[in-house]
Design a protein that fits this description.
Layout: E1 19-20, E2 23-24, H1 29-32, E3 40-41, E4 45-46, E5 58-65, E6 70-74, E7 81-84, E8 87-97, E9 103-104, E10 111-119, E11 122-135, H2 143-155, E12 172-175, H3 177-185, E13 187-194, E14 202-215, H4 217-229, H5 245-255
Parallel strand pairs: 3-9, 11-14
Antiparallel strand pairs: 1-2, 4-13, 5-6, 5-12, 6-8, 7-8, 8-10, 10-11, 13-14
Helix pairs in contact: 2-4
The chain binds N-(4-sulfamoylphenyl)-beta-D-glucopyranosylamine and zinc ion.
Zinc ion binds at residues 95, 97, 114, 196.
């Protein structure tokens, strides 16, 4: 596992410098990339006609704590095909960030889920659908979270912090009904960005959904607790937009004549 974290010397502002045994990781994009994610989102439009997701309403997944996030993998990725920007993709995995990485009109959400897709005819091409969650006091929370929550108990153990003991759960059923719905009925921001973690590779097509889903405090606390157990997390696993490109922006702004 790459030795990045979310604070201090191995945190987002220094990802490009990370070394092991005196060797640099090829993480320079994290600092020098011109299309880095996350970003602050302001311009959203209704879903384009060439973009339709068709997640089955439920299906089998395994889930694991990989030291950076909680990640769920479908047993049958071919059942999770979607057309994004007129191209055919399938779902590789989804995972969570506490708090959100993308900002919406300069505001953050407590949780953001990333549905990572690879192009059906070219595994190296990624598209990620980002969905925000809001902590809501009423109801039972979204079905996706409801179906994952019982599995989280298993992932709390500190032993999952160690790569050699990392182990996916047994397959269990995940409810995805609300995902198609929220994507169909919300405004979206599609933009060319990057992985939000090292190696921060670019040419990732992002689809960030404006409308949040609901998570209740009990579920959210359980998710947060796992992040805490993981020594690579403090209490969180997000990076802020726009990473160190902010520094370049500050310089530029200073040079702009007024
Ligand atoms: S994210 O959605 O931008 N937070 C994100 C960050 C890292 C990855 C994916 C999404 N990592 C990539 C790996 C690839 C792998 C792919 C799908 O995930 O670099 O090797 O194929 O799991
Ligand atoms: Zn992510």
């Amino acid at each position: 596992m790459p030795p990045f974290s979310y604070t201090g010397e191995t945190g987002p502002l220094l990802w490009h410098n990370l070394t092991v045994d005196g060797k640099n990781f090829p993480y320079h994009k994290c600092a020098t990339g011109k299309q880095q994610s996350p970003i602050d989102i302001t311009d959203l439009v209704p879903l384009a006609k060439n973009t339709t997701t068709s997640f089955p309403s439920s299906g089998q997944f395994t889930i694991e704590n990989n030291g950076h996030t909680i990640e769920a993998t479908p047993q049958k990725p071919e059942d999770y095909k979607s057309i994004l920007g007129g191209q055919e993709y399938k779902l590789k995995q989804f995972h969570f960030h506490v708090s959100s990485e993308h900002h919406l009109h300069d505001e953050t959400f407590p949780l953001e889920a990333h549905f990572v897709h690879t192009k059906v005819d070219d595994d190296s091409k990624l598209a990620v659908v980002g969905i925000f969650f809001d902590v809501v006091d009423t109801g039972a929370g979204d079905m996706l979270i409801q179906s994952i929550c019982p599995e989280l108990k298993e992932l709390e153990e500190p032993k999952h912090d160690k790569r050699e003991e990392k182990k996916p759960s047994a397959p269990f059923n995940v409810q995805m009904h609300s995902i198609n719905n929220i994507i169909d009925n919300s405004k979206i921001r599609n933009y060319p960005g990057s992985l939000t973690t090292p190696p921060c590779s670019e040419q990732v097509s992002w689809y960030v959904v404006e409308e949040p889903l609901a998570i209740i405090p009990k579920q959210f606390n359980r998710l947060k607790k796992i992040m805490k157990f993981n020594s690579r997390f403090t209490q969180n696993n997000y990076s802020d937009p726009p990473k160190e490109n902010l520094l370049a922006l500050v310089k530029q702004t200073k040079q702009t004549p007024t």
